[in-house]
Amino acid sequence: MAVRINRSVVDATKAEAVLAERKVPDRVERDRADGNRLAKPQRQHRIARLLEQHAVTSQSQLVDLLAADAVVATQATVSRDLEDMGAVKVRVPGGELVYAVPEMPVAQVAPEDHLRRVFGDWVVDVAHSLNLVVLRTPPGSAHVVASALDRAGLEDIIGTVAGDDTVLVVASELVGGMALSQRMRHLAGL
User: Fold this and answer.
1) Which of 169, 181, 176, 165 shows the shortest CA–CA distance to 126?
2) Is the distance from CB of 28 to CB of 48 less than 8 angstroms?
3) 77-101 as b/e, with b when 16 or more CB fall inside 10 Å?
4) Dihedral of the CA atoms 63, 100, 136, 124 (nearest 10)?
5) Which of 53, 128, 141, 183 is deepest in the core (most CB within 10 A)?
6) What is the structure's pLDDT at 50?
7) Which domain holds residue 8?
């Protein structure tokens, strides 16, 4: 048994010497040699392009697509990029959830016709109570409507909360839920 231990020690020492002799690069060096580490704006541009071209269902799938495009990025980096870009998951025909980037930058205000299009496509029912308005959407679509409302910057709206298929809109006390719900019904074509 003592021979085995000594032999293992000798074999391990030989392996370490061989690795040191070959100068095996660490992970960061391998990544840099195998692909590009792009600056944030360039990487986010590539991500947006990949999301347009592919039905991306997970961050790990996006990391793989970037790697296939010779771009090095970790899942944590991709997660931060998706958040910065305002990416959301939307349900596509067949029920699958995929990442999508809204057409407008997060800081830009949505025009009335954009709201009308979003409401026409996604809002299926509107109800109100006091200064609250409840919007119903198909499953997995409420965040699209809430995001459009938030970016519209309407003075009558204090805020929104989105669930899976329901958006709660809090109206200012001066306007009230009934008047705001009528405006939203009009936007949705209901």
Assistant:
1) 181
2) no
3) bbeebbeebebbbbbeeeeeebbbb
4) -140
5) 141
6) 92
7) 2-100
CB atoms within 10 A of CB 74: 12
Cβ-contact 87, 100 below 8 angstroms: yes
Query: Is the torsion defined by CA of 42, 44, 50, 53 positive or negative?
Result: negative
In the prediction, which pLDDT does 1 show? 32
Buried b / exposed e over 12-47, threshold 16 CB at 10 Å, is eeeeeeeeeeeeeeeeeeebeeebbebeeeebbebb
Lowest-pLDDT range of 4-8, 63-67, 109-113, 148-152: 4-8
Q: What is the CATH number of the domain that holds 49?
A: 1.10.10.10
Q: How many CB atoms lie within 10 A of CB 168?
A: 15
One domain, residues 117 and 58? no
d(CA 121, CA 123): 6
Assess if residue 147 is contained within a domain: yes
Q: Which of 122, 147, 138, 135 is nearest to 183 (CA)?
A: 135
